[in-house]
Every structure is written in structure tokens, then in C-alpha cells.
Amino acid sequence: MINYIWFFLIFFGILVGILSGNGEIISKAIINSSGNTVTFAIELTGIMCFWCGAMKVAENSGLTEKISKLLKPILKLIFKEASKDEKTLGAIVMNLTANMMGLSNAATPFGIKAMEEMNRLNDNKGIASNDMALFLVLNATCIQLIPSTIISIRAACNSLNPGIIILPTLVSTTTAAIVGIVCCKILQKYF
After folding, report:
1. Buried b (16+ CB within 10 A) or exposed e, 85-116
2. What is the model's pTM?
3. For residues 129 and 104, which has the higher predicted lDDT (pLDDT)?
4. Rounded distance, CA 37 to CA 54, Å?
5. Rounded distance, CA 146 to CA 144, Å?
6. What is the band of 7 on the pLDDT scale with cuts at 50, 70, 90?
7. How many domains does one find in the chain?
8. Fewer Cβ atoms within 10 A, N terminus or C terminus of the chain?
């Protein structure tokens, strides 16, 4: 459905532009934005490679393992069923650790694995359990220690201080995660 909406927005925008005599401006804007998009994508790719390399160093140095050790006791408190299975809890920890470091691309396979493992423990296969719903909320509101993707985008757009968002991001994502957990725990009592 969203594809149709985008198509009609673009089509009617171009049509109105042509009918109002701005066809040349539209074609110049399309060409300029296409070139800027390619340049931006190349810059962003380089910066993302840097952050992925930095995260690999963090992984090899044991930093991610230390973070996961800190997370396990907390996660055992909030996940009822998943905390009983070490394999499931491990996938959850790896997903959340990757998300905390701002590497959502690396977190995706762990998130899929965590959902598969929680579904394995689920009595009602194919229907989300409370732990699955909580994991989804935590995945969406994950605390960002290093928002590397946003920092990369800001650097690619020539921000004077791309890292200035670290503290506000940490505060907002921590607040969102806490509110998400509280809401899930309240709703679990009624549904």
C-alpha cells in the first residue's frame, strides 16, 4: 500500500510541476539529488566501515563480552522463560549488545536467532509470547551507548561535532527502554 502512496505523491508532484511550467527545474533537481545521494552513500559507507572495524576491535578485545556479562543478570530478571535457557539468553544478549553499540546491521541476525529460540520455548508456536513482545520492545528502544550510525550520518553531512548527540541519545534511549519494560510488565498482567 505504501508503494502506491509514494508513487502517487511523486507522480502528481512531477505532473503539477510540469503543468505549472517548472519541468526544467524538476529535471535539474532530480539529477542533482541523484548525484548528491551517490556521494552521500559513498561517504556513509566509509564511515560505517570504520565503525564496524571499531566494533570488531571491541569484540576482539572483550569489551562486548564484558557488556554481555553486565546485561545477563538484568535480563534474567525481566525475561521469565528465556532466562531459563542459556542459548536463548545468549542470543538476546548478543542482539542487545550489538544494538547498544549502534550496529543494528550486526544485531539483526542475533535478533532473528533470539526470536527463533524464544519460539522454540513458546507453548503457542507462532503466537508471540510475553518474552517475545518484551524483546521486540527492547530491540526497538535499545539503549545506545555509541549511536554509530547517527554519528556516521552527521559526519557525512559535515557536522561540526557529530558526536555531540551521544549523551542526549543515551538519556532518551534509556528512558524509552525503561518505559517500554514497565509498559510490557503492566500489560502482561492483563493480556
Report:
1. beebbbbbbbbbbbbbbbbbebbeebbebbbe
2. 0.69
3. 129
4. 25
5. 5
6. very high
7. 1
8. N
Q: Predicted confidence band at 125 (pLDDT cuts at 50, 70, 90)?
A: confident
* pLDDT score at 180: 95
Closest of 139, 148, 118 to residue 48, by C-alpha: 148
Q: Which residue has the cell 492483563?
A: 190
pLDDT(43) > 80: no
Let me know the angle formed at the C-alpha of 135 by 164 and 83, rounded to the nearest 5 degrees: 120
Task: Compute the distance between CA of residue 53 and CA of residue 155 in angstroms, rounded to an integer.
Answer: 17
Whole-number Cα distances in Å, 36 to 45, 122, 184 = 14, 48, 42
CB count in 10 Å sphere of residue 13: 11
d(CA 152, CA 157): 9
Which three three-digit cell numbers place residue 177?
A: 527502554
Alpha helix positions (H), the chain: 2-19, 23-61, 63-78, 86-100, 104-121, 130-140, 148-156, 166-190
Query: Which range of residues forms the domain containing residue 10?
Result: 2-190
